[in-house]
C-alpha cells in the first residue's frame, strides 16, 4: 500500500501532535527517521520499508513483517503485530492497545500501559533502563496483561516491571536485570506467574514493593528459578521510605528454587508481610524478617535448608506439612506447627513461643552435638528425636517453660557401644500441663542394654539406668552363638529317622535321601529366648562291611540346612549350615541289637539382623565350624502278631568354634567354644504288616527322655558376660511309618514333638527314601 507522507506534510493539528512526540521518538540512531502517523487504518511494513518511527491511533493496525531494524512505535488504542525476523528499537502501547510479537526483537525497551501483550519466541532488551514495563495509568483501577512464552526480557534496571492491577505471565522465559543495581522482576503491587522460567538480577531476582495506595502483590513460581546474584532471591521492601509495606502472596511449587548471593532466599522489611507457600520444592537459603514485618512460611511436601531469622518486633510463623523437612535455625519464631510426617531438624539451640505437633517430629541435630529446645507452650502429638551420652552425662534436652499438653514420643539414637556410666539422664522438663512422654519402641538401645523412660516428680522425665535390660542386639548375637547345637541336632536325628527301617532289606548296601524341617522355641530361661525354624536335606550312601558278627554298614553323607531365628522387637538371625559326615551301623538279626555311630563336620554361615530402638537396622555376619558325634545303641524285640518294641539310648555331642565379630553399629561380640552334650533314653513301639511280594508297612510310636548336660556357654558382648544355658530335660513324642514298596525301595516319614523348661520343639518332620542293591 502507499505510505502516508511524513508529519511535515500533514494538516497543522496532526503536525502539532507529531511534534509533541519528537523528544520521545528521536533519541537514538533513529533521530533522522521520519515519523509516520497511522490512524484508523491497516499498514504493512517489511524489510524493504524505510526506517521510520510510527504513531498508531484510532484503532489502527501496524503489521511488521520482517526487517532487521525498524524504528520506534507509539500506539494508542491500536494493534501492533510483529512477526518473525522483525526488529524494532522500542515500542510503547497504551489506552487499550494490543501487541502480538512472535520471533522478533526489541532492543530499547517495551512499555505496555493499560493494554495487552502476547510475546512468543522473542527478545526484549534495554541496555540503560527497563526491558519490559507492564503498567497502568495512575488514576485507573485496571492495568495491563502480558504473557511471555519462550522469550526473554532484560534491562539494566530491571528485566520487567509490573504495577498494580497488572499481570505478567511467563512460560519457558527468562527475565534478567543486568545493571549494577538490576533486578530480574520488580512488582510494584503487581502480579506475576512464572512456569519453567528463570528470573535473575544482579542484586535481587525479584523485588516487591507497594504503591502509595495499593499494597497487595502476588508471585507464583512453578518449576522456576529465581536468583539474586549479590542480594536475596526475593526482597520485599518499600521502594522509597514514604511508601507503605507490601502484603505479598508467594507460591513456590514443583521444583522451583530460590538462590540469594547473600544467603537469603527471602527478605521482608519495612512493615511488609508475606505468606510463602512452598510445595514439592527443595529450597536452600535463609528467610530474613526485619522489625515490624511478618512472614508465614508454609512447606508442603518440600524441604528447606536455611534459617528463619526474625528480628525483635518481627513476626514469623512456620507450618511444615506432608513429610516436609526444614533444616535450620528458627530465631524469635512465634509459632511452629509440624504435621503429617514433617520434620524440623535443629542445627543449634532453639527457642519457640508455640510448638504444635500433629504427627510431625523435631530432630535435635546430629549425634555430634547436644542441643536444648525451649518452648513456652507445647501441644498436639509428635516425636522428638534426640541423642544422649551416658558416659559424659550429656543429652539433648526439651524444656517447656509454660504448659505442655498432648502425647509425645522420644526417639533417642541407639548405639552399639555401652555407656561408660550408669547414671540417669534428664531429657524432658515441663513447668505445667498434663503432657505424656514415652520412648518409641518402649526403650532405647545403648550397647548391650536397653533403657526405659521414667517420670519423676510432676513433669520431669529421665532415662533410667536402674531398670535397664538386655538389648535386642545383644540378645540376637548371644542367641546366634547358641543356635549352632540345635541346628546340628536337627540335622542329625536318630538312625530310624535318618534311614528308616534297615531290617526290611536285611541291611543291604544302598543310597538314601532325607528332607526335614523343625521348629524350636528356646525360652528366656536359657538366658535369651528365640524361635528357630529349620529346613534342610541329607543324602548318603553306604555299603556292607564284612567284619564281625551281624551286618555292618559304613557310609558317608552330606547335606545342607537353613535356620531362621526370630527374637523380640524385630531382631532376627539366619544360619546356613553345610555338612559332611561318615557313619557306621551294626545290625544283629538274631538278637535284635543294633549300634549306630555318626561323625559330622559342619560349616556355619551366620547372619544377625536387628531393628534398633531408633529404627536403624544393624547387621553382622560371621562363619565358624563345628564337629560332633552321635552314638546310638538299642535292641529290636519282636513280639507276637508282628508287634515289636525297640528300647534305645543315644549320646550326642558337638563342639562349635568360637568367634569374635562386630555389628555395623559398633557392638562387639565374642565367645569361646560352644559345647553341647545330649543324652536320650527312649523306646519305639510298632507293628509290622506284611503285604506280600516284599512289601511291608510298619507304623510306630516313639517316646523318649532327653537331657542336655552342658550348662555354661559364655558370650561376651561389649565386655558384658552372658551365659547360654540350655541344660535341662524334656520329653519327646514321635510317630512315624516305614514302608518297603519292594525288596529294594523303601520310604519313611517321621513326626515328633518335645517339650521342656528351656527348649520346646512344637514340631519336627522328616521324609526319606532308600534304595538298596
Describe the fold and architecture.
The protein has 773 residues and is mainly β. The protein has four domains: 1-126; 140-344; 346-470, no CATH class; 471-504 and 512-772, Autotransporter beta-domain (Lipocalin). The chain contains three helices and 68 strands. The strands form five sheets. The protein has a 27-stranded mixed β-sheet that branches. It has a 21-stranded parallel β-sheet that branches. Strands 51-52-53-54-55-56-58-61-63-66-67-68 form a twelve-stranded antiparallel barrel. The protein is elongated, with a radius of gyration of 44 Å. The N and C termini lie far apart (115 Å). Residues 504-773 form the Autotransporter domain. One of its GO terms (cellular component) is outer membrane. Residues 1-33 form the signal peptide. This is Autotransporter outer membrane beta-barrel domain-containing protein. Keywords: Signal.
Topology:
Layout: H1 12-25, E1 34-39, E2 42-46, E3 52-57, E4 61-65, E5 67-76, E6 79-82, E7 86-94, E8 98-102, E9 105-106, E10 110-113, E11 116-120, E12 123-126, E13 130-135, E14 145-149, E15 152-155, E16 158-163, E17 167-171, E18 174-177, E19 183-188, E20 191-195, E21 198-201, E22 204-209, E23 216-222, E24 225-228, E25 234-236, E26 247-253, E27 257-260, E28 264-268, E29 273-279, E30 282-284, E31 286-289, E32 294-300, E33 303-305, E34 308-310, E35 315-321, E36 325-327, E37 330-331, E38 333-339, E39 343-345, E40 350-363, E41 372-386, E42 388-389, E43 394-395, E44 397-404, E45 407-412, E46 425-432, E47 436-439, E48 444-446, E49 449-456, E50 460-470, H2 472-492, H3 495-499, E51 510-522, E52 530-545, E53 551-566, E54 572-587, E55 593-611, E56 617-635, E57 637-638, E58 643-656, E59 660-662, E60 668-671, E61 674-687, E62 689-692, E63 695-708, E64 713-717, E65 720-724, E66 728-740, E67 745-756, E68 759-772
Parallel strand pairs: 1-3, 2-4, 3-5, 4-6, 5-7, 6-8, 7-9, 7-10, 8-11, 9-12, 10-13, 11-14, 12-15, 13-16, 14-17, 15-18, 16-19, 17-20, 18-21, 19-22, 20-23, 21-24, 22-25, 23-26, 24-27, 25-28, 26-29, 28-31, 29-32, 30-33, 31-34, 32-35, 33-36, 34-37, 35-38, 36-39, 38-40, 39-40, 40-41, 41-44, ...
Antiparallel strand pairs: 42-43, 46-50, 48-49, 49-50, 51-52, 51-68, 52-53, 53-54, 54-55, 55-56, 56-58, 57-58, 58-61, 59-60, 60-64, 61-63, 62-63, 63-66, 64-65, 66-67, 67-68
